[in-house]
Every structure is written in C-alpha cells, then in structure tokens.
Amino acid sequence: MNAKVKTKAKPLTQAMSGADLFIEALKKEEVEVVFGYPGGAVLPLYDALYRNPIRHILARHEQAAIHAAEGYARVSGKPGVVIATSGPGATNLVTGITDAMMDSLPLVVFTGQVATGVIGTDAFQEADVIGITMPITKHNYQVRDLKEMPRIIREAFHIATTGRPGPVLIDIPKDIATTLGEDPAFVTEVNLPGYQPNTAPNVLQVKKLADAVAQAKKPLILAGAGVIHAHASEQLLSFAEEMNIPVVNTLLGLGSFPSDHPLFLGMGGMHGTYTANMAMYEADLLINIGARFDDRLTGNLQHFAPEATVAHIDIDPAEIGKNVDTHIPIVADAKEALEKLLETDLVAPDANEWRIQLKESQKEFPLWHSEEEEGISPQRLTKMIHDITNGEAIVTTDVGQHQMWTAQYYGFNRPNRWVTSGGLGTMGFGFPAAIGAQIAHPEDTVVAIAGDAGFQMTLQELGLVAELNLPVKIIIYNNQALGMVRQWQEAFYEERYSQSLIPCQPDFVKLAQAYGIKGYSVTTEEEAESVLNETLNSREPVLIDCRIKPKEKVCPMIAPGKGLHEMIGVKP
Amino acid sequence: MKRTVTVTVLNQSGVLNRITGLFTKRQFNIESITVGPTETEGISKMTVIVHVEDERVAEQVLKQLNKQVDVLKVTDITDQAVVSRELALIKVLTTPQTRAEINVIIEPFRATIIDVARDSVTIQVVGNFEKIEAMIELLRPYGIKELSRTGQTALTRGSQKQVTDLKQYSILK
Known about the structure:
The structure holds 2 protein chains of 2 kinds.
Chain A: E1 16-17, H1 18-28, E2 33-36, H2 43-51, E3 55-58, H3 62-76, E4 80-84, H4 88-91, H5 94-102, E5 107-113, H6 129-133, E6 139-142, H7 149-161, E7 167-173, H8 174-178, E8 180-181, H9 203-215, E9 219-223, H10 225-229, H11 233-243, E10 247-249, E11 264-267, H12 274-282, E12 285-289, H13 295-298, E13 309-314, E14 328-331, H14 334-343, H15 352-364, H16 378-388, E15 394-397, H17 401-409, E16 418-420, H18 430-440, E17 446-451, H19 452-458, H20 462-468, E18 473-478, H21 483-492, H22 508-514, E19 518-522, H23 525-535, E20 542-547
Parallel strand pairs in A: 2-3, 2-4, 4-5, 5-7, 6-7, 9-10, 9-12, 10-11, 12-13, 13-14, 15-16, 15-17, 17-18, 18-20, 19-20
Antiparallel strand pairs in A: 1-8
Helix pairs in contact in A: 1-2, 1-7, 3-5, 3-18, 11-14, 16-17, 16-23
Chain B: E1 2-10, H1 15-25, E2 29-37, E3 43-51, H2 55-67, E4 71-76, E5 82-93, H3 96-106, E6 112-116, E7 120-127, H4 129-139, E8 144-149, E9 153-156
Antiparallel strand pairs in B: 1-3, 1-4, 2-3, 5-7, 5-8, 5-9, 6-7
Protein name (chain A): Acetolactate synthase
Domain Thiamine pyrophosphate enzyme TPP-binding (chain A): 398-546
Domain Thiamine pyrophosphate enzyme N-terminal TPP-binding (chain A): 16-130
C-alpha cells in the first residue's frame, strides 16, 4: 500500500475574491470557452482568468466576440459566454445581444461596471448597462453583493438555456470582483417562482390537433427554429412521414427537415418558394411547430393562411396568438409535443390530391435564376459550394441577398449547420459567427458567406482567424453594392440608388494576405470552381472574393405589404 | 378598450423600470400605474390601467408581463368585481366668499380640507376614478391651482357576486 497521505479537500471557508468566484462558477457551469475583450473594469476578472484559465477567445471587437458566441451557441446548443468591459465594451455588445434575443440564442454575457461607490456619477467608462439592455435581454442582473454572485450566475445559465432560450446579462462592478468573500455557497438548485417555463403539452390540445389532422384535406407543417432548439428533427420527420404531410421551413428553421425530402416544399416567406407560400395560402390545417409567424414569413397578415385551422406549438406562450389567430394552441417544448402527438392514435389525413397539386406546382414553379453565362451567378455559386462540401458544411451569413441565395440554394439536410441573423438582420454577423462555429466544431468545414458590404463591418476578425489558424472559409459574394438595398431601390424607388453602391473597395486578396491568410479573387465560374475545389476542404483559412453578377436579384418575392398569393418574379 | 391589470412582482431593483420599459417597447399605452408593498415582504403589487386596441393586444399585455422573471402573477381584473380607489389632492383658489361654498360642494364626496392658506385650500378626496373626476369638474370654476392624483389601485372583492361597480344593461335602454 502506498503510504501517501490523502490530500485534504480545499476548505470551503477559504477566502475568494469575486473574480475567483466568477471563474469557479463558470467551471461549475462547464463552460469550455469564453469570447471577450478586456478593459479597465474587468481587469480583476481577466486576472483571475490568467491565474485559473478557461479558454478565452480574444476577438478584435466586442461585437465580433458576441457574434462568435452566437455562432458557437447556434451550432453546439450550449450557451455562448461573453465578457466585455464597462461603458464602450458593454455598449458594443448591444447589437449582438439584440440579435440573440430575436433569434432565441442562449448567451450569458458578463460586463464589467465601475465600482459601486461611483455608479451614477458618470464615472470614466460608465454606462447604464442594466437600463440599456433591459429590453433586449431575457433577464439581466447587477451583482450588488458578493454573496449573491454564485446564485446569480447559476440563475443566469438556467434562464438562458431553458424555456425559450435567450441572452442573460450580468453586470459586475469592479469592487465586487476584488472583494474577498468567505465561504462561497454554490447553489445548484434555482428558485425562481416567476420563471417556470412549461414544456409538457396539454393532452387535450394534442388530441384536438390529432383530430384536426385526421380531418384535414390540405394539411401543412411549418417548422421553425424551435424544432432545432428542442432537438426535435427526428420527431418532426416521423410525424411528417407517418402522416404524409408536406413541410415548409422558416428561414431559421432550415435544416430541421431534410431539404432533399420529397415532402419538403422549401422555405416560405418573402423570398420563399412559390409552392411553399401557396401551400400556406391554401392549407386548411397549418401546424406551426416552433416558428413565430414573423412578418417576413407571413407577408400581409390578412392574406396569411386564410382558409386554415391554425395549430401552434411554441414554448413561449406569448408567441401564440401574437400575430395570427390560433385555434389549437399548444404551449410546449416541440420535442415533447411531437412525442405526445406520435403516441396518440393518429389517423393520416386523406390528402393525396393536395400532395399531387403541390408536386405539380413545384414542377411548374421551381426556384429560377438568370441562365446568362457571363459572370458568376450567385445561385450557381451557392450550389457549387453545396456540391463541394456535400451539403455538410456549417454555413453562416449576414443579412441580404447572399443570405437569401444561401437559404434558397444551399440545401440544408441536418439541424445546427445553418447560422444566420434572421430576426434582427445584422450585417457583419456571419464572419464572426463562423469563427464561433468553427471553435465549437474544429473538425468541420465552416463556410462564411458574406456580402462585400457586410464583410467590411467585421473584417478585423481576420486577425483572430489568423492567430488561431482557424480553417474558416470566407466567401465574399461581391457585387460592389448593398445588394438587397439596391434591389429594393430598383423595384420600389425607381432606380434611385441612394448610397447603396460601393465602387471603392479594398483589394480583399491583399487584405487577407496582410493577415497572413490565403486570398483569391475569382471572376468566372470556372475559376470559382477550381479555387473552391482546391480550398474548401483544406485545413487552413482562406478568403475568396467572388465577383458575382452585380445586378442579379433575389427571386421570387412578396413585395412589402402584399399577401402570400401575390408573389412576383415567380417565373423567368 | 381600458383594462385594469394587477401585477405581483419581486421587489428587485429596477423592476418598475422593467415593467414600464416593456409597455414602451410593445406600445401599450399606460393610463395610470401605482405600485407599493404587499402583505408579504419583498413582494410588491402594481395596478396598471392600460388602453389597448383589442382583445389580442390585451392578451399580449398579460403574456408579455408574465414572461418577466421578476413577475410572479398577472391578473386582468377588468371583468371581475373589484374595489378600486384613487386619492387626489386638489389646491383650489378661495376667497372668503367662496370658502363656504366649496365646503358644501365637497361634503357629499366625503372629501376633507387638509390645508388652508389665505387664498387657497387643499382638498383630499378618495374614491374611484369617476367620483374624483366629478368633484374636479365641480371645483374647476373656482380655479384649480394644483392637482395631484395617485392613480388607481385595486383589489378584487372578497366575494365575486354581482355588484354595482359593473355596468347595468337593460333591454329598455
């Protein structure tokens, strides 16, 4: 026997600073990586991080740190953790926090704050972050007493990741981080009487839905990101297949249902497929699973699903009936609701005619784009990226034309591979989000598809990519314009291209090279194909500047204020 | 339409800001809001009178309030039997001639004079919204110098029988 004396467990009564407590709490939450940027008010936190490391990703701007955390959260399902300093550090997070709130991404955001004694005196780098972020967080806290820190951090992670996920912010004054406290009591249970998200469906409503399914002649499933958050893709597939009901995805729901499935009608909404939108227009039973009837999906509400009995499964009761009158409300986790539904005696609807009608419509009105040979067609480029990555890549985008082309043509077959800024529509989101996604899945191919304008909003993160040698593939759809703004100006403002054309651009290849990253510029599809083939499955970062046809538009479209049935640009 | 909503909240710092901020963000129009402690320590109650367009918005108000972590309970008591009261302080200009008149006017309202100066009196009145409105109208001709109202606070009645607070309808109109 070894005579070694058993080492004593660390006594709990050891004095710990607030910053140490913070690190300890993050470890208890099994946080593997934090995204952040240091500054005066968070010096104590960063000092504790130095002594007691958790992997920290140093973005070059706080906005990129939080978008990276969003990308990480989106593909991993784990909460993204962000640290920023007080004042400007915190205010630089505002766009990312709002973005995460709109798209229901779990984040726990820590901001430094000036010392408690000077809060409210307009001290150096002071901002009322609690006030600023109140309407854009699921909840926020300021730590006023060291003793509360473990409880607050536990609650924050609980709130961020349960129910409808969202961002939670914790503001930590500098003196709280340096104060020594005795005997930190780490709580494991949360006691939040005002926060009790319901996940189990009401059995009677599920029965009602089953009855409606049995009677429907034109049933349709609308699947949103709630399916992905609830890990309910398998159940969705079983339900759709067993009942033989066609499926439409929302933008954020792409990947929740295989795009190559015969029941899949494509994305619905403003730039959705004609068949998906007409299916929503004509359906007599619309089963919304985890989507929030966003205005970009519904178009003019008066013409949305006018014939349909609407069933809505949502974890957030406030979404039910918010925009669309709902006949069968089911407040529940999508997975639990679908499981319960699959357990009931389901009778498949008699909808053969409906499916034939939709199949014919798909044949007659497929997505189309200009077949002109000259220049790079962004749609063909997207299909090329799909083919070279076998449709298996994690793809991120900003907002705008390139986002819509990717949504229309990439063809997602699995959940958690599609990272885009849906609700807020944030330019500059995609590239940093790709960095976070790559950190979550270091072995996978991550493609950041960006517009030339959006990329210039967060391109400083080339520094981070180079530093970590992250094999992110940046593909710029370069039309030297704010493409979607230009398209709207062409369609609705008599071609007055006010401030939407950006002829002066950096040499993106040299820019990449300046950071030590390989850069390519391609002007033809042959060039694009050869460069993509060579680089997309490589293990190093690369930037490819693709000169796409500058005037290419996103089709088809529901013009603003119009109904689902009033799509334009449906055929060449 | 006007709805009376009571909101039971954890008395955390910033909770009033959270609630009013929510109303601003969602464009719910607050007519009055009162807040104060309840019988349980650490728990406060707000009474909010809110103007909404239709049932859907009314439902949204309740659901959005319920989503707040610091909110324990939300009740729309508009259609219930309630007792609601508001307090108003009204400073009215007086002359030696009008002072007696004013006394006579306020007496049926069970209002009291709580401050007297050479050229004015301050009257305190407690009652529901309509009663206070009625008294203010009667005092207006004398010259109201200052007016301060608390906004309504309300409780549901102990027994929910038909009570006179509810509107009476008759086929004879």
